[in-house]
């Protein structure tokens, strides 16, 4: 299973590359949506990581993507501008299947 990162800053991308995770850096909404569709066509990709800034920027598109694709799973990760108070994975589970974690 392959992981892929979509983020808006070089620091996060560098850290993930050191862990062996391929990434793209962008601030453009259309580039994020395009990359989501491109990555989802690769059957090896199981998880797409996206930082909170881009997740907020493309929230409607990500919600639609999640409705139409069971794989890859999109996981929001905190970025350097977040305060860490949000738990996106728990919120995703609650919204998707109605179980509070």
What does this protein structure show overall?
With 101 residues, this protein is α/β, with parallel strands linked by helices. Helix content is 47%, strand content 22%. The protein has a 4-stranded parallel sheet, sandwiched between helices. The longest helix has 12 residues, at 29-40. The chain starts with a strand and ends with a helix.
The largest beta-sheet arranges its strands as 2-1-3-4
Give average pLDDT, whole number.
84
Q: Number of DSSP strands? A: 4
What does the overall shape look like? Answer: globular
Strand content: 15-25%
Helix proportion range: 40-55%
Key descriptive features of the protein:
101 residues, alpha/beta, 4-stranded parallel beta sheet, 5 helices, 4 strands, 47% helix
Short description:
The chain is of the alpha/beta class and 101 residues long. Helices cover 47% and strands 22% of the residues.
Which helices and strands appear, and what pairs or packs with what?
Elements lengths: L1 E6 L2 H9 L3 E4 L3 H12 L4 E7 H6 L1 H10 L4 E5 L10 H10 L4
Parallel strand pairs: 1-2, 1-3, 3-4
């Amino acid at each position: 299973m392959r992981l892929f990162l979509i983020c808006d800053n070089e620091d996060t991308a560098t850290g993930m590359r050191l862990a062996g995770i391929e990434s793209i850096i962008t601030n453009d909404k259309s580039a994020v949506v395009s990359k989501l569709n491109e990555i989802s066509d690769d059957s090896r990709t199981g998880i797409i990581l996206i930082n909170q800034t881009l997740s907020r920027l493309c929230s409607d598109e990500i919600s639609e993507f999640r409705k139409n694709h069971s794989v890859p799973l999109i996981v929001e990760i905190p970025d350097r501008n977040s305060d860490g108070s949000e738990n996106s994975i728990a919120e995703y589970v609650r919204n998707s299947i109605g179980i509070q974690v």
